[in-house]
Design a protein that fits this description.
- The complex is a heterodimer.
- Chain A is an alpha+beta fold.
- In chain A, β6 and β7 form a beta hairpin.
- In chain B, strands 1, 2, 6, 7, 8, 9, 16 and 17 form an 8-stranded mixed β-sheet that branches.
- Chain B is globular, with a radius of gyration of 22 Å.
- The chains are: A alpha+beta, B alpha/beta.
- At the A-B interface, α1, α2, α3 and α4 of A face α3, α4 and α10 of B.
Chain lengths: ~260, ~575
């Protein structure tokens, strides 16, 4: 009655995963604290914790907040890389705290954690997200269609659907935008995330608003500000090829083909 | 304190809240108050799909979907509501497509559909391809698409505004009171209609697929205003959470052909559900997994989990259909799902119960009467379309169908009604709550109490329950509630005081856990997600009815729970033995 047993023997990776907690290690989180209610300047504070290296950086932050210092402030929600709340600079690189395991950020040395750059820090790791969302809204991030709606769904080939798949993955965490040197120096620049979301519609075969969006991105603060440093692609926790998407929008502006 | 006035106020900006907002903004002056930025909501974590009998890939119809929903809910579903949901499912999917949702497509360019647990052809004959999906990111796409359309419609959001109280005046809705996280300021929103769409409450369990923020805020504050909570004992445990972490791995993985296996490599679901096997409903699969574990056939050194095996599926199929969950396995477990099976265990996932509503989303204050101007939709609500056990994908359907209905109904009501005067000192209760926590000189820690709550719930009120375990949980919760009175926070500030909010959220979790346990203790039968080992069969004579739990406040301020029952609406399906 029952199906045969699995062919593959246990891999070393599976054995490691199933063998419960690893040896706990002492981890130092070096966090850039800032609370203007208390003090006008930011200050670096070290916290020492006993952690399983397979745990997330977010688990370590929670442990600080719950067991050592309840004033430590950061945003978090889903804790597995889907909601986009907890983008922060970890060892100088933008990452999601919930998608970064301690063992992957060299836990033998102090792990530095600070707010993402280019957006105003409001308290500790919390930044003002409004400018980020404003840039997103400015690119008209919604399907624009003309004419009568079909009764059933609009048809779209699997190939046409695949054309913009990569940019549908965006979770608006701002890791890309806040890793961009142009954005740091020029707060007016739309930034990679807004362009990614424009790309998602420009290359959607159902959409008829590409010309309008391209005009918006042709602005002096638009796609031409991108200097292809690839920081954004490296920062994206969803693996979106952000720089490539921006290049495709640039090309569409030149060729008017999309 | 600031006072605002809107026709309609929506509390929560997940799928249900934003679906409601799209409708109500077109019809009335609407504000959406949300404790998170809209796209942070846990709708985004849903993966596998949204069922609708589109019949794009094989024969299907909404009546079969209705039957599956009723049977899946172990006949505790209100059948009139299920019928509406399954009928309107088709338009709900088509509406999302027209809003821009990038569904996965068939060869012919139509919305593709796949199999899902408990969804069958012709009343249980075999699995049917009914779930409309976008890879394993369907919830993410729904959340993004709804947010995009909120931007398009100019929906007005108050982000990081945490609603802490509902204002009623002579039984009618007057507004809500909110705490602004950025500043610590208290805001009163006077409104003709209020829609609660604030999501679930899974954080009273330790191993859960739920976000940190799912703390039952809406349920708790409505309950404290004397309104009932329905069927709170029915909590769903999703069969496939990542072992120990609880992170969801979609049922779509089994819809694509994934298999549950025990330590002997046996496909054990064949023994528990000969027809549907791995695609039996979630309660059935979760109990089967725990039975395997208890009988010594669990995997790993402690035998405390089983495997989700995808290794026989082509890597291209995993990449195209299940990209996110395979990445979770790589990220969090360090294994390669092309070649390794994934260690899983059931994870606390979804509250079938909640704030009782009728099919227009109007909140009930007892078995028959509504609270004028008050609406609820989504996981916070109980319509009841999920009964004792929700079918996979029906939550995304619920938020779209009943979110839309509640948004329309609330706006229509607001356009006809007058503002109800605010009660005197409307923010008094919230101010006292916030001040009390900020100024407390107590000695108890929020994190410690929460941890102990989660531990007792995991041990005593999980997949298998008995009178004894539930009594233990009740005692533990009572002790924790006592200790909570002496809780203190470290952050005394006004700016982004998340320490304070965690304390408030814990208070909500404690109240709701107590309701769950007391309701479960009284239900001396087994039905759907509620399995009593001391009463292992379904008892339709005594218990084919909804639990209605009310908070009673004595003169000295002590609270207790009063249970009442509400008949189930049965239209075309009489209860039968449930087999898969």
């Amino acid at each position: 009655m029952s199906a045969p047993t699995m062919d593959a023997p246990h891999s070393a990776a599976l054995d490691a995963a199933e063998n419960g907690a690893s040896q706990l290690i002492t981890v130092t989180l070096r966090i850039r604290r800032f609370n203007p209610e208390e003090h006008p300047d930011p200050v670096w504070v070290d916290y020492q914790l006993l952690m399983d290296p397979k745990e997330r950086v977010l688990d370590a932050l929670n442990k600080v907040k719950w067991e050592q210092d309840g004033t430590l402030t950061y945003r978090r929600s889903c804790a597995h890389g889907i909601c986009g709340s907890d983008a922060m600079r970890i060892n100088g690189r933008n990452r999601l705290a919930c998608k970064t395991l301690l063992k992957d950020v060299n836990p033998e040395k102090p792990i530095t954690i600070e707010a993402i750059k280019g957006l105003t820090v409001l308290k500790d790791l919390v930044v003002d997200m409004d400018p980020f969302f404003q840039a997103y809204k400015d690119v008209m991030p919604f399907l624009i269609t003309k004419g009568n709606e079909p009764t059933r769904e609009r048809l779209q080939s699997a190939e046409d659907r695949e054309r913009f798949d990569d940019t549908t993955k965006c979770i608006l965490c701002a890791a890309c935008t806040s890793s961009c040197p142009v954005f740091w120096n020029d707060g007016q620049y739309f930034g990679p995330a807004a362009i990614v979301n424009a790309h998602r519609f420009i290359f959607d075969s159902r959409d008829e608003g590409a010309e309008q969006r391209l005009e918006i991105l042709n602005d002096r603060e638009g796609v031409w500000r991108c200097r292809t440093t690839f920081n954004c692609s490296e920062a994206c926790p969803r693996g979106i090829e952000v720089t490539k998407a921006i290049q495709e929008v640039k090309r569409a502006l030149v060729t008017r083909r999309f | 304190m600031q006072i605002h006035q809107y026709d309609t106020v929506i509390v929560g900006a997940g799928g249900a809240g934003m679906r409601a907002a799209i409708e109500s903004t077109k019809r009335s002056r609407t504000a959406v108050l949300t404790k998170l930025y809209p796209t942070r909501s846990h709708t985004g974590a849903a993966q596998g799909g949204m069922c609708a009998a589109l019949a794009n890939v094989e024969e299907d119809n909404w009546e079969w979907h209705t039957f599956d929903t009723v049977k899946g809910g172990d006949y505790l579903v209100d059948q009139d509501a299920a019928e509406i949901m399954c009928k309107e499912a088709i338009d709900a999917v088509l509406d999302l497509e027209k809003m821009g949702l990038p569904f996965s497509r068939t060869e012919a360019g139509r919305i593709d559909q796949r199999r899902f647990g408990g969804h069958t052809r012709n009343h249980g004959e075999a699995a049917v391809r009914r779930s409309c999906y976008a890879a394993d990111r369907t919830g993410h796409m729904i959340l993004q698409t709804l947010f995009q359309n909120c931007v398009k419609e100019g929906v007005e959001f108050f982000n990081e505004f945490y609603v802490l109280d509902l204002l009623l005046n002579e039984g009618k809705t007057a507004g809500v009171v909110a705490y602004e996280l950025a500043t610590g300021e208290i805001h009163v929103f006077q409104a003709k209609a209020v829609v609660f769409a604030s999501g679930g409450t899974g954080k009273f369990y330790k191993v859960t697929s739920n976000a940190h923020t799912l703390t039952g805020d809406g349920q708790a504050l409505v309950y404290r205003r004397g309104l009932p909570l329905e069927d709170m004992e029915f909590f769903q445990f999703h069969p496939t959470g990542i072992w120990r972490m609880g992170i969801l791995l979609t049922e779509g993985a089994r819809g694509e052909g994934g298999i549950l296996r025990n330590k002997d490599g046996e496909r054990f679901m064949e023994r528990y559900a000969p027809v549907m096997k791995d695609l039996a409903s979630r309660d059935v699969c979760s109990r089967a997994i725990y039975t395997e574990i208890r009988e010594g056939r669990g995997c790993g050194p402690d035998g405390d989990h089983v495997y989700l095996d995808l290794t026989h599926l082509p890597p291209e199929q995993l990449d195209a259909k299940l990209p996110d969950i395979t990445e979770f396995a790589r990220t969090y477990l360090g294994i390669e799902p092309y070649t390794d099976p994934i260690p899983i265990q059931p994870t606390a996932h979804y509250a079938m119960g909640g704030i009782p509503t009728n099919v227009e989303g109007e909140v009930l204050r007892n078995n028959t009467d509504i609270v004028p101007g008050l609406y609820a939709a989504g996981e916070v609500a109980c319509v009841s379309v999920h009964g004792a056990n929700r079918l996979g994908t029906n939550s995304l359907l619920d938020i779209n169908v009943f979110g839309r209905r509640a948004g329309i109904a609330a706006a229509d009501y607001a356009n006809k009604a007058d503002f109800v005067p605010l009660p005197a000192n409307p923010a008094e209760k919230v101010q006292a709550l916030v001040d009390g926590l900020r100024e407390s000189a107590g000695t108890e820690s929020v994190a410690q109490i929460r941890k102990e709550l989660q531990e007792t719930m995991d041990v005593n009120a999980m997949v298998y329950r008995t009178g004894a375990t539930l009594k233990q949980a009740r005692e533990d919760i009572a002790a924790l509630r006592e200790r909570y009175k002496n809780v203190a926070i470290q952050d005394k500030g006004f700016r982004y005081n998340t320490d304070l909010l965690e304390a408030v959220e814990l208070g909500n979790l404690l109240d709701l856990a107590e309701v769950l346990v007391v309701s479960a203790l009284a239900r001396e039968e087994s039905r759907g997600g509620h399995f009593r080992e001391d009463f292992p069969t379904r008892d339709d004579v005594k218990f084919m009815q909804h639990t209605m739990a009310y908070q009673e406040v004595a003169e000295d301020g002590t609270t207790s729970i009063r249970l009442d029952y509400k008949p189930v609406v049965t239209t075309r399906y009489q209860p039968m033995e449930r087999k898969y």
